[in-house]
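$ ./design --mode recover --in tokens.txt
reading tokens...
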């Protein structure tokens, strides 16, 4: 793996141990920071990316910028829900307390956090992330990040399970009807905002487009729905055979919905067998 772990300058022992643990977990070298610059470490070890352990958690440094865990829009979306406002993802999924959700493209877990809040203590959210770096950073954030004065949001973070695995392999061996909802948020073919804070993730994330086979397996393993997030106006919905979408009139995001229940009730299969 083209990657090493180091620390900030003058790290406390706890941060050094964190860095060593992460290096062991990912089977990559731990490099003491000493007085070296990140550029010098990159050059010496001939790597393009580094994970830097800090008191606030790991940060991935790449040529595209820094990548670290943060709540993004999750906190605002949850507060909007508390205030009775609408969330298009929640509507698309038909989320209710106690439901189970498989997020096949976890990333920073923004959508998973919102889903975890809605499904509550009796719900179950599992997030799959194929990138070892993103999985490491997101898992650490979900386990350690706290929202002051918002215990319900912090609890929502802690309930999410993270698996570093390719969703294609995971879905293939998943039993029928394993989750109420299966969700995909693949990297958009054309970024909505090329200068956004998500730019660094594009060098780390799985850039493959969603396949018809993945949709077919998801429909088999989902009890109720498969939901796909895409840019409004994207041709991906048509390519994947998704005809039902929801989203704000002026929103740059749409959610494609596949209702898996009618096909199963009729004893037939979904229309993605070809």
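writing sequence...
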């Amino acid at each position: 793996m083209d990657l090493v772990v180091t620390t900030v300058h003058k790290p406390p022992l706890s941060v050094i141990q964190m860095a060593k643990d992460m290096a062991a977990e990912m089977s990559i070298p731990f490099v003491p920071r000493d007085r070296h610059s990140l550029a010098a470490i990159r050059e010496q070890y001939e790597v393009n990316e580094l994970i830097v352990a800090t008191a606030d958690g790991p940060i991935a440094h790449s040529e595209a910028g820094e990548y670290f865990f943060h709540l993004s829009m999750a906190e605002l979306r949850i507060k909007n829900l508390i205030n009775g406002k609408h969330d298009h993802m929640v509507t698309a999924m038909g989320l209710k307390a106690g439901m189970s959700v498989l997020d096949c493209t976890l990333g920073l877990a923004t959508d998973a956090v919102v889903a975890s809040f809605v499904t509550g203590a009796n719900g179950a959210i599992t997030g799959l992330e194929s990138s070892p770096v993103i999985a490491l950073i997101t898992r650490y954030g979900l386990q350690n990040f706290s929202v002051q004065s918002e215990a319900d949001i912090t609890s929502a973070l802690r309930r999410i399970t993270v698996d570093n695995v390719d969703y294609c392999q995971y879905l293939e061996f998943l039993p029928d009807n394993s989750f109420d909802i299966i969700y995909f948020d693949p990297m958009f073919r054309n970024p909505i905002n090329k200068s956004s804070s998500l730019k660094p993730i594009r060098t780390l994330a799985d850039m493959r487009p969603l396949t018809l086979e993945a949709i077919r397996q998801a429909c088999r393993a989902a009890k109720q729905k498969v939901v796909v997030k895409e840019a409004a106006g994207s041709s991906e919905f048509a390519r994947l055979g998704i005809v039902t979408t929801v989203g704000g009139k002026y929103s740059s995001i749409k959610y494609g919905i596949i209702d898996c229940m009618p096909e199963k009730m009729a004893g037939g299969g979904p229309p993605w067998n070809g």
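exit 0
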